[in-house]
Amino acid sequence: MASEKEFISLLNQHQKIVYKVCNLYMDRHSEREDLFQEITLQAWKAYGNFRGDAKFSTWLYRVALNTAITFFRKEKNRPAIYSTDIVPDQPEDIFDPIEEQVKAMYAAIGDLSNIDKAIVMLYLEDYSYNEIGDMMGITANNVAVKMNRIKVKLKEETQKHLATT
Amino acid sequence: MELDELKYQLKNKLSTDHAGRSPEDIAILLTHKTSSIIEKLKKSLWIEIISCIIVVIAFGYIGMAGNYQSLRVYFSVFALLSVAFLLLFIYLLRRISSLSNTTLPVKGNLQIIVNIIEEFAKRYFQFTMALIPVCFIFAFLVGYNEPKSIPQLDRFAQRLFSHTWQVIVFIAMYMAFLSVGIYYFTRWYLKKLYGKYLVRLKECIAELTEE
């Protein structure tokens, strides 16, 4: 099918988006794999409605975030601290303060609610408050208020994470 | 450090675990089945639809070929009710298929999923509750008015009860306890299946709504 080929090609080019969402929402590798599959299937199901009036990347973010937020899985014993196994740790003798800060903030992002995670993800991707509002279904003003609150929270939580390491 | 100062590094860190999938891998993924809550609801509805079809055929047959009038009336009415429920389940299935759409904004998508689950749970509950009078009261009435005597049933009643009032009290208590049991069991079952999930989705909507 031509549209299937077209979809596979587009998803192949933009698969980094799906990986980012999976990394943000899931701790374990197996859970990330499950979510990747679910996002791919949901995107394929919805692809018939994609008219190209928005960028494919924006459309894919919307599908991926909707799927991740509503992803149904049984609660398992989840680790208290968000997994930071994405980047292998540097050897202990090399202490990089920036890297430590990044790790701590990454862990703090992992502790946010599903909604706040989505907002942070879109903010990191340089979407404007208007665009984030469109994707989340809220006003730009509400996004700005939430973003300010999230930044304060992340700063505090990062300090806590740094203090415990 | 603030979020903005680490923006670039965080962005990189999020996309580092990127094994990469080939177009062939993605094509294989498309042959798999989704595990979303909407798909689970659709699967439940398909099971209900198939069960209804089996009930309509089997009970319709007994309704036409049964030996006793009470059985014929009871199973015919049950078969007709199942046709009504079959239509209801098909309507729900079509509604769920038309409403589920992941390309909506997050808040709209969450609200639609909540509406779908609540409507499904409501109809499922109504369906189960509607069967209680059919199963018990109607069965009792048609059985009571059966012109032919059923020897097995008569022998059973004579062994257990010596007065008619005892039979009536026994049947009334049996119906009452079973009805209350089914009512609470169905509520518990639906809450167990979708309760936690609904709470989680509603929390997300509330979080998005608050300024």
Distance between the termini of chain B: 26 Å
The total beta strand count of chain A reads 0
Radius of gyration of chain A: 17 Å
Strand content of chain A: under 5%
Stated plainly, the CATH topology of the largest domain in chain A is called Rna Polymerase Sigma Factor, Chain: A
Distance between the termini of chain A: 53 Å
Number of helices of chain B: 7
What would CATH call the class of the largest domain in chain A?
Mainly Alpha
Essential attributes:
heterodimer; A: 165 residues; mainly alpha; Rna Polymerase Sigma Factor, Chain: A; Arc Repressor Mutant, subunit A; 2 domains; 0% strand; B: 211 residues; 81% helix; elongated
How would you sum up this structure, described in words?
The complex is a heterodimer of chains A (165) and B (211). Chain A is mainly alpha-helical. Chain A folds into two domains: 4-76, Rna Polymerase Sigma Factor, Chain: A (Orthogonal Bundle), CATH 1.10.1740.10; 97-158, Orthogonal Bundle (Arc Repressor Mutant, subunit A), CATH 1.10.10. Helix content of chain A is 69%, strand content 0%. Chain A contains seven helices and no strands. Chain A has helices at 2-25, 29-46, 56-69, 97-110, 114-124, 129-136, 140-164. In chain A, helix 1 (2-25) packs across helix 3, helix 1 (2-25) packs across helix 5 and helix 2 packs across helix 3. The longest helix of chain A has 25 residues, at 140-164. The N and C termini of chain A lie far apart (53 Å). In chain A, 41% of the residues are buried. Residues 76-88 of chain A have low confidence and may be disordered. Chain B is elongated, with a radius of gyration of 26 Å. In chain B, helix 5 runs antiparallel to helix 7 (164-209). Chain B is an all-alpha fold. The two termini of chain B are 26 Å apart. Chain B is built from seven helices and no strands. The model of chain B has no long low-confidence stretch (mean pLDDT 84). Chain B is 81% helix and 0% strand. Chains A and B meet through helix 1, helix 2, helix 3, helix 4 and helix 5 of A and helix 1, helix 2, helix 5 and helix 7 of B.
